[in-house]
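From the pipeline queue, job 12 of 40. The input is one protein chain; the requested action is below.

Action: predict structure.
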Amino acid sequence: MASSSKAVATIALLLSLNIVFSTTVSANHYVPCPPPPKTPKHPPTPPAAATCPKDTLKLGVCANLLNDLVHLVVGTPPKTPCCSLIEGLVDLEAAVCLCTALKANVLGINLNVPISLSLLLNYCGKGVPAGFQCA
């Protein structure tokens, strides 16, 4: 019987070692979960709508230029003071300024706004930005 209990003890020891080693090997294949995504400290602000950095009322001087352009005055109408007001602006800002002036009827004349806007911008060396609508 002694040899039978020795055999049982040996089998128990081998099974125990087998379980320990299997657990150790399995534990080495642990793959951690990915870290949660980092949230920015300050949420990104949406781009602001284009605004006119100039006083729209000052653009009333563009009425004379537009009137001369529409009524085909002989010769070249003077570009100042209207074009000098929008000179330092990018096309989008210039378009917004003139659009605001045209919509507010600061110029004092009833016009086809998209055509008038395009006419003034082109004459002053600016362009109507792609997709821009004076609404």
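Job complete. The helical segments are 2-27, 62-70, 82-85, 91-103, 113-123.
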